[in-house]
Please model this.
Amino acid sequence: MNRLRQELCDANCAIIRRRLAVLTWGNVSCRVDSSRILIKPSGVPYETLTAQNMVLVDMQGCVLEGALRPSCDTPTHLEIYRAFPQVRAICHVHSSYATAFAQAGLPIPPLGTTQADSFAGAVPITRQLTPQEVEQDYELSTGRVIVETLAGLDVSRIPGILVRQHGVFTWGSSANEAVEHAYILEQVAKINFRTLLLNPSAPLLPDYLIHKHEERKHGSSAYYGQPSDCCAPSLSRQRGCPPASSHSTPGSGSPGHDLPPQYPG
Model:
């Protein structure tokens, strides 16, 4: 349990390092077993977050361990876990570009192969909640509308969704993967935003290309990456790969500020 608490704490802090959230606008949770999850405490700044702050709750949202209140989004997380047993961890953020699509009421269309590497089609968006749903149980209703929208979809092939006029939920086999999917979703939202600025009629990626990119990375005969017994980090060091520059970290600022010089913002 201590290792899982630390992994979850690290994943929550990663959403700040990847510029997917500011202040306390985000949370990550993970399954402990079929009847319990760990989740970030509500409103605690990431810079003060510790592994012991992670709150253990049951599938009804009752706190089992922890001195702090769990995230107010806990009912949303729990509804997703109940509907999809294969989901092991969930990330919720309000990253700039993906949330812009959510606020515009638009799914993120599959315009290129970058998106197809991780999402087998469009990133869906929920319908608007009704006044009654908001009044009765806002966070639980948010989870229910997510599950409703995902009906008939394979959540292992579409590992994220936009909640209309709200933000982003992604998931994965671990807390780290759930955050990684949120990061990927933000990058494809940024690319698509710029694509649609240049060409509002940009065509959708053909299904055969979506299938090819999904299969080469995630299929039974996948050939992307290195064999499991190969140490990828050592390859990076041998080739002298420079560390990522903080100036090039995507997902922040206004759309025009990081465009090439020929496209002033």
Remarks:
- Residues 232-265 have pLDDT under 50 and may be disordered.
- The two ends are 48 Å apart (CA to CA).
- Residues 232 and 238 are 10 Å apart (CA to CA).
